[in-house]
Amino acid sequence: MTDCGCDKAKAELEEFLHNELSAAECADIREHLANCDDCSAEHLVGLTLSSKVKEACQETAPDDLRALIVGTIERLDA
């Protein structure tokens, strides 16, 4: 393994976060993150953002809001 450098780590960070890279590419980026504070900080931001988006997607709208939206859509379709 060799340090892949900031350019590659940042370019492939999204794929790395979603486990879409090969094992060798992940290992290179993991090694870089362990030694680069800047890229490690970006990785932490990506992890936090992904976690918050996943949480938000689990929430449901209150029944009254849902009924209002459905009613509006039905009126627009009529």
Describe the structure in your own words:
With 78 residues, the protein is mainly α. Helix content is 78%, strand content 0%. It has helices at 6-11, 13-17, 23-35, 37-58, 63-77. Helix 3 (23-35) crosses helix 4. The model has no long low-confidence stretch (mean pLDDT 91).
Secondary-structure class:
mainly alpha
H/E series: HHHHH
Low-confidence stretches: none
Helix segment count? 5
Distance between the termini: 62 Å
Report on the biggest sheet.
none
Query: Percent of residues in helical segments?
Result: over 70%
Q: What is the general shape?
A: elongated
What's the Cα radius of gyration?
A: 20 Å
Mean pLDDT across the residues is: 91
Number of strands: 0
Q: How much of the sequence is in beta strands?
A: under 5%
Would you summarize the structure shown here?
It contains 5 helices and no strands. It is mostly helical.
From the structure above, extract its key features.
single chain; 78 residues; elongated
List the helices and strands and how they pair.
Layout: H1 6-11, H2 13-17, H3 23-35, H4 37-58, H5 63-77
Helix pairs in contact: 3-4
